[in-house]
Amino acid sequence: MAKAITPADLTITPRDVRFGRDARLRRYWLNDDPVATAFYNALSVTFPRGEAFFCDSVKAFRDGTPPKLQGEIRAFVKQEVIHSREHVAFNRHVTEQGYDTSRLERDVVAQLALTDGRPAIARLAATTALEHFTAILAHALIADPRHLAGGDREAARLWLWHAAEEIEHKGVAYDTWLHATRDWPRFKRWRIKALVMLITTGRFVNGRRRGMLDLLRQDGLTGPRIWWRLFHYALVRPGMARKVAGAWLSYFLPGFHPWKHDDRALIGLAESDYADAVMPEARAA
Question: What tens digit of pLDDT does each residue of 38-48 get?
Answer without folding.
Answer: 999 999 999 99
